[in-house]
Amino acid sequence: TANERPLCFSETDHEGGESAVGKKLVALTTRRVIILVLVMLMVMPVFIVSNSHTDLTSAAFGASVVFDNYRHMMDGIANRSLYEESMLKYFYYHNWFSGHGGCDGDTFCPAVFLSHAFWVGFAGRSKTYDELRNYTAEARLQKDVVVAWDAAVAQQDADYAYVMGSFPLEAQDKLSSEWDIECQFGGWSHLGQSLLSTLLQDAVSYAVRCPDDLRPQERFRIRPSLLTEQEFDDWHLAFFFDARPFVRVESQNNMMLTGFICLVLCVASLQFSKDANALVLRPVERMIEKVNLIRDNPLAAMKMADDEFKGEEIKKFKANTNREKRSIWLEKYHLSFLSRMLNWFSTSGSSSADNAMMETAVLEKTIIKLGSLLALGFGEAGASIVADNMQGLDSAGVNAMVPGSRVDCIIGSACIRDFSTATEVLQGKVMTFVNQIAEIVHGLVCEFHGAPNKNTGDRFLLIWRLGGLSYEQQTRLADMAVVSCVRILGCTHSNKTLAEYRGHPGLIQRLGAHCRVNLSFGLHRGWAIEGAVGSEFKIDASYLSPNVSIAETLEFATKVYQVSILASQDCVSLCSKALARQCRLIDKVNMKGSKVPLSLYVYDVETGRVPVHDYSSTLEWSVRQRFKARQLFEVEKTKKWTSEVNIVDDFINDSVDVRAMRKLYTTEFLQLFNMGYQNYSEGEWRVARRLLKATQDMLGFQDGPSTALLAFMETPYQFEAPPKWMGVRDVPL
């Protein structure tokens, strides 16, 4: 309508003014991207796992060999020389002093590694230093063995594959001295010896007595590999490596990497403003428009997808039209080759643009889908919940407990007959069965300006809101409520897909040879509280009212009266006279939830007389066809509010299916039943018995209302009205 906001926006709508988000993004793009990259550079190392934790290196293997030889020596399995040889080989292979001096020529030496051993000792969590000294006393190396090993290593030359290099005399002394340096860090007690505990000219410029004298990233621990967790916590042999050369090289690389990234960012930042407008700002502004529209009118989200598709089709049509006009003009001047070239460039250019916009286009379409799902999931009853939560900008929290609102409406309760039996027989296919029926129920209710609300398996809650309508509009809506129920019954029994269930062996066995898919309806007019029912964990947008219970009770009563559509007097009195005349008054009852007795009306239909229609079609149900179907649906739905459409004549009197369903209910039958009911109401039950006996079998089958009234008069009253009979009884359930 004219008061509704447009749902489709062209790109020209955004050219009027730049949004605040656009101005801010252009100004801060460079700064924020640089900060983001710098943060990534600082944070990424935290998530990098070194292969040294999974791959055993020479240091790890060597530590295991040394520790095994030490334990074998302590157990008397091996002699001391084997342990001392493995310890010296370990330290000389990872020679700290040769590693800092460099290799001669093309030889390999410890300098090729960026970390070297400098501390050895024993560590334990619960051990005291006195207990650790029991291990260090035996682990100390002999002076003469160290000197002899160093002399042998000093003889290595370039012919060796790996030149270990010798130790300074001071380092030899420390290697053979007592392991008495106590270090406490990381929850461990350490007792051992450091090669760097004192300064050495031209070698050690910074004394490292304990490993924690170095920063954590400048050292790492090597321990024997084959230890259980309990053995490791109790005590173990530990080597510490000096990783300062590695840290220096890593720092140099990081500085060069940072400089390169800064250079790239400086160059790239010059293009950010241009790209931001084309790739980000315009799509974001379109998203904001759509979110604002959903916030103002959540139900309008259902039309967004159609309008978006319509806009895309218009753009494609314009592009094809322009291409054809250009081709005709160029061919007129014998420039067809130029036309083909331009078409190729335009095609390739448009595809690249689509690729550039792909992520934002997906996000934009996702917003439309989420809005449509919200409208589908909550419906009219939940529109206020969505709107209230989207209006609040103080937090991102969701408050589903929005106070309800009172609405005046026509309430319908629809139920699938024999649903429990169908569930037992169909098992997993019962979902398809229910959805096939729901497609008919929801589609026709929406077409006649109703709102499907709650689906509970076999039952559908249907609402036609009367608020804000004139009396004439309310009358038309009441007619549409009754007509939609009649049309649902007609479509259900004429539908070829649902008719196939009549031949299902399981259903035939349980329900008989004449089984078919059937529904029953209860209609009542009254007030209801519209809002959310549930908790912060799960909510349902629904309607609460005694009138809802009355509508459900009316549907239950259809089984007693053996009818398909049962309506209360409040609903029928709102209908037009043309429709009300077609409703049959069958009883007046007291019903829980109503302060006054309710007159019950039935809209008579015999669904067994509806033929099955075959709407077979080879039409492909594509996105385009769905769009056309929805557009046609909206046009037909809108026309029902206009004077062009007479609800009763067009959809009942002129309907072939409805005429077939009502053919048996002649004027003679209705007048005879009405006479019988009037005598029943006035207490003349013997006269009523004679008349209702006639109508009971007049249709060729038992008339449900006649049978129900006869059964009530017979038991326990034997067709004698009670002394205080006022024509009202309790609802039979």
TrEMBL record:
Source domain of life = Eukaryota
The protein's UniProt keywords, in alphabetical order, are:
Membrane, Transmembrane, Transmembrane helix
Give TM regions. Answer: 33-50
Which InterPro entries does the entry link to?
Nucleotide_cyclase
Q: Per the record's keyword annotation, is Acetylation included, yes or no?
A: no
SUPFAM superfamilies given in the database record: Nucleotide cyclase
Q: Mind telling me which PANTHER family this protein's record contains? A: GUANYLATE CYCLASE DOMAIN-CONTAINING PROTEIN, OXYGEN SENSOR HISTIDINE KINASE RESPONSE REGULATOR DEVS/DOSS
Q: What is this protein called?
A: Cya protein
**Organism of provenance:** Symbiodinium pilosum
